[in-house]
Amino acid sequence: MKSRTLAGTLAFAALTAIAVALVVLVPMQNYTVHILVQTATFSIAVFGLTVVLGLCGQINLAQAAFFGFGAYAVGLGTTDLHMNFWLAFAMGAGIALVMGAVLGMTTLRLGGHYLAMVTISFQQIVTLIMVNWIPVTHGPDGVGRIQRPDMFQSSQAFLGLCVFAMALIGYLVWHLPQTPLGRSMRAVRDNELAAGVAGINVYKVKVAAFALSALLGGIGGGLFAGGFAYVSPDQFSFAESIVFITMTLLGGVASPVGALIGTGLLIVLPESLRFLKSVPGLYLAIYGLSIILIIRYMPDGIWGFVQIRVRRWLAPPPFTQAPAALMLAPNNGDGPMALEVTHLRKYFGGVKAVDDLSFSVRPGEVHALIGPNGSGKTTTLNVLSGIYTASTGQVLLGGRDVTTLAPHARTAAGLGRTFQNIRLFRSMTALENVIIGAEHPGNQIEAGHAALVERARAALDFVGLEGRATNWSPVFPTAISA
Q1: What is the pLDDT of residues 54-109, one digit of tens each?
Q2: Rg, the chain, Cα only
Q3: Would you list the DSSP string of 145-186?
Q4: Residue 162, number of CB atoms within 10 A of its CB
Q5: Hey, CA dihedral for 347, 348, 349, 351, is it positive or negative?
Q6: Domain with CATH 1.10.3470 in the chain
Q7: Of the ranges 84-98, 264-278, 334-348, 455-469, which one carries the lowest mean pLDDT score?
Q8: Residue 46 and residue 169: Cα distance in Å, rounded?
Q9: Is the CB of residue 46 less than 8 Å from the CB of residue 217?
Q10: If DSSP codes are grouped into helix, strand and coil, which group holds residue 457?
Q11: Predicted local distance difference test score (pLDDT) of residue 47
Q12: Pick from 387, 379, 445, 377: nearest CA to 411
């Protein structure tokens, strides 16, 4: 983790130094400045797709709409409303955040291709509004003479601001996977069902990822408007959302480094091939062939391709100190009943998978549920853990009625489960897999993350796996969930 932190810090420092150099040291032509501004602002929007698609595995085909919210807020705010740039910029980012959260809350229970269809529809609606709401958006003519902050009036100074914003946001997105929220997103992407019974509020995490993606889109759009001083509806169409997705996939969906590579590739490569435009068709042929070859031979993107081959050098170093012994306090059986199940039933149409089941478990007791295949054992466990909703009956945990609670809420209350077919979070180390199970609200360790790591190490040592705490699956994670 320390090596990762150092690498991210050095990259942030380097990009910050470049931003300062762009402001005061390196003279550039306006054309070059515009290309770099576009690269920096598009990268910020693509960082948003790294969060929602790369970390959480949710498809967002409306990123250009959120990019447009930020751009139009700055454009209309500084021209029609004569607002301060920063106030208009904050308003645009806020609108994008709220719209992203609302879209997420209303659609993320769908998932898969249904989610893709809804986001496409949202994107098309936003584009139509930009084109046809002429009294507000100025219609197809767009918004011109957009103002910049007083300290960044020159194009080159504003480029420095864009590069610094890109470096800062990229640094934060780089570290997001190592935070509790980031680990929750990775767990949802890797195995949504296991994440829910591990105590993660899957729906809340998805909405948070979608809202963060929209926020970064709005930030990128606001800076884009200031950099080019003009915006129009065609710049925020569905085609641009496809461009954002393509940038993400080409560079590598799981990292902001990949997002930056993909963005630079799709913006800089066409410009570098301009000298070939004198030969009809050759420019497009080379450009298209390059994209096809990358997709064909680097399915995880350029950065993903690199990561797979250097992953053994990126692995966290082993711990130098032995873990503490895991302390398990015995239970003498006093107190309320640990688990009470009364007249539990689960019907699937005319099939009675569980019919009038009642039992109780005292604290400290160990019970077994046995029966032939198809007798309802797994269905019972799914009903108890909240994956299935009981047709009738009641489940009490420590005297508390949890019959209608979601899986993550039951885990927070103290009811956990495992699976017959092991469901690991394959993009995480063994240690992170254990940490996920201890980060839910009902099992917080007050001493902080360091104590959580030590507790997880002790648990791994208890089952003889502490030596593999920093190991992970050899299979590189697929970014898009089914």
Answers
A1: 999 888 999 999 999 999 999 999 999 999 999 999 999 999 999 999 998 888 77
A2: 26
A3: -----GGG-SHHHHHHHHHHHHHHHHHHHHHGGGSHHHHHHH
A4: 26
A5: negative
A6: 2-314
A7: 264-278
A8: 11
A9: no
A10: helix
A11: 95
A12: 387
Domain covering 339-403 assigned CATH 3.40.50.300 in the classification: yes
State the Cα–Cα distance between residues 192 and 185, nearest whole angstrom. Answer: 9
* Cα 460 from Cα 467, distance rounded (Å): 8
Q: How far apart are CA 295 and CA 290, in angstroms?
A: 9
Q: Which two tokens stand for residue 30?
A: 């306006």
**pLDDT value at residue 418:** 84
* Structure-token pair, residue 274: 């301009």
Q: Are 258 and 252 a contacting pair, CB within 8 Å?
A: yes
3-class secondary-structure state, position 251 = helix
* Residue 13 CB partners (closer than 8 Å, separation 6+): none
Structural tokens at position 69: 């919210």
At the topology level, CATH places domain 2-314 in ABC transporter involved in vitamin B12 uptake, BtuC (1.10.3470)
Tokens representing 43 are 């990268």
Q: Is the pLDDT of residue 478 over 50?
A: no
Q: How far apart, in Å, are the Cα atoms of 226 and each of 23, 91, 219?
A: 16, 14, 11
3-state secondary structure of 83: coil
**Torsion sign, CA atoms 236, 239, 244, 247:** negative
Q: What Å distances lie between residue 222 and 42, 111, 121, 206, CA to CA?
A: 11, 29, 23, 24
Q: What are the tens digits of pLDDT across the range 126-145? A: 999 999 999 999 999 999 99
In the chain, the amino acid numbered 334 is D
Q: How far is CA 380 from the centre of its chain?
A: 33
164-195 burial: b if 16+ Cβ within 10 Å, else e: bbbbebbbbbbbbbeeebbbbbbbbbbbbebb
Contacts of 308 (CB under 8 A, 6+ apart): 300, 476
Which residues, in sequence order, are CB contacts of 224 under 8 Å at separation 6+? Answer: 37, 38, 41, 42, 67, 70, 71, 231
Q: Are 44 and 66 in contact (CB under 8 A)?
A: no
Q: How far apart are CA 232 and CA 138, in angstroms?
A: 9
